Amino acid sequence: MKSLPFLKAPRRRMTQPAETVAIIVAAGRGARAGAGGPKQYRPLAGEAVLARTARAFLDHPGVSAVRVIIHADDGELYRQAMAGLNSHRKLMPPVTGGKERQDSVRLGLESLEDAAPVIVLIHDAARPFIDAPTISRVIDAARAHGGAIAALPVFDTLKKSDGAARPAIADTLSREGLWRAQTPQGFRFEAILSAHRAVAGEALTDDAAVAERAGIKVALVAGSPDNMKITQAEDFGMAEILLGRKKEMMEFRTGHGFDVHEFEDGTAVILCGVSIPHGKKLKGHSDADAGMHALTDAILGAIGAGDIGDHFPPSEAKWKGAPSRIFLEKARDLVTEKGGTITHCDVTLICEAPKIGPHRALMRAALAEILAISIDRVSVKATTTEQLGFTGRREGIAALATASVRLPLSD
Ligand code: MG
Question: Which of 165, 194, 302, 332 is positioned for an S-S bond with 255, CB 3.0–4.6 A?
Fold first, then answer.
């Protein structure tokens, strides 16, 4: 497992270990879902179920890495399904599972032993509608209690059948205190790994049952009614309807941002994360990346979350000389916490010099990496002001940005 350096030294959190790793269990054969191959690889509105599920965790700011457990025969299916996510920095190589679900989870946990995350989330590949708030609730409760699962209270009246070929009711059960278990299920890593080792070879139906055997306290936190498990062929129809309804319940927002920094003596300017050799530098409390500051304000504007100064007061000494990516990461994480997605951003840099053109591709790549979106959703442009005004007199650089964000409709 020495091949996972990013887990031990993640670029964003240099001093912390891999905090929370999500294991996605995708090794099942899905016999109940009929013909057409394992259900987790089948398309749902054009995208594989597994890719949708994995993206929910990859995009979540509280998840440091994602590992998928696959069946030994599914390497090619995995490769095809995950093609669009392969370059994601949080995605670990898949590992092969075992005969039963419980074996697969245990093998997944064993594969993380060297990485030693603090918390591990275990999630079914066939639950593609998992949302960011539910993931956050499970992480927080697992940290606090040692274990936690997403679950929903039972509201239907429960009947026990007599077991006959044409069943009739034998009894009516009390639903008092009953919950339906969903995933993700989150645990402290060391504890759930030893719990799984202790019951290896049995066939418990979820990881909470494994934890209960080991005496780990497992909290129940609110799941989501949308967090359905695609089990039978007809569930795909329901999932498509759900997906359509979710799309209808999204709204698009746009925000804009503007920033200016003055030149002072120096040797390079930093713009949109790229250092450009220049006879001057930009003056500022942080690294003075006007492009990234304008974009951060645009994203914050789109979600109504104030501006960069609200989140990083210049009066606080700790932001002195800070790399501006932390501002942009904060804005990105706030969007994710609202269940939103950044769909597009466009930055215009205004200066006579340095020349931006040769650096545009790198700038787009740097912004796309930080925002965890594809590069075709990021635009960087440049213009001059025909030698007019402060930018024309080469006194400083101005930057404009817009950001478009898709958010769940709120009342
Ligand atoms: Mg600024």
Answer: 302
Report how far ligand 1's centroid is from the alpha carbon of 261 (Å).
Answer: 6
Q: Tell me the CATH number at 11.
A: 3.90.550.10
Residues 87-109: tens digit of each pLDDT = 788 999 999 999 999 999 999 99
> 255 and 242: one domain?
no
Domain boundary pick from 189, 216, 248? 248
Distance in Å, CA 397 to ligand 1 centroid: 10
The whole domain housing 154 covers 5-248
Statement: residue 179 has pLDDT above 90: yes
With b for 16 or more beta-carbon neighbours within 10 A and e for fewer, the 127-154 pattern comes to bbbbbbebbbbbbbbbbebbbbbbbeee
Between 110-114, 188-192, 311-315, the lowest mean confidence (pLDDT) is in: 311-315
Rounded to the nearest angstrom, the distance between the alpha carbon of 288 and the centre of ligand 1 is: 6
Residue 314 Cα to ligand 1 midpoint, Å, equals: 10
Do residues 262 and 380 both lie within one domain?
A: yes
- pLDDT at residue 17, rounded to an integer: 56
Q: What are phi and psi of 348, to 5 degrees?
A: -115, 125
Measure 368 CA to ligand 1 centroid, in angstroms: 20
Are the C-beta atoms of residues 299 and 332 closer than 8 Å to each other?
yes
Q: Work out the pLDDT band at 33, boundaries 50, 70, 90.
A: low
Do 303 and 286 share a structural domain?
A: yes
Residue 44 to residue 25: CA distance in whole angstroms: 18
Ligand 1 center from residue 99 Cα (angstroms) = 55
How much distance in Å is there from the Cα of 399 to the middle of ligand 1? 9
CA of 301 to the centre of ligand 1 (A): 15
69, 106, 115, 122, 187 from 109: Cα distances, Å: 10, 5, 10, 9, 11
Q: What total of structural domains would you count in the chain?
A: 2
Higher pLDDT, 230 or 245: 230
Q: Based on the fold, state whether residues 263 and 221 are members of the same structural domain.
A: no
Would you say the pTM of this structure is higher than 0.85? no
In angstroms, what is the span from residue 177 Cα to ligand 1's centroid?
54
In the prediction, which pLDDT does 321 show? 80
| CA 289 – ligand 1 centroid, Å | 7
Expressed in angstroms and rounded, the spacing between residue 16 Cα and the centre of ligand 1 is 28
Taking residues 289-294, report their average pLDDT: 98
Tell me which residue has tokens 């009711």. 169
What is the predicted pLDDT for the residue at 12?
42
102 close to 206: Cβ distance less than 8 angstroms: no
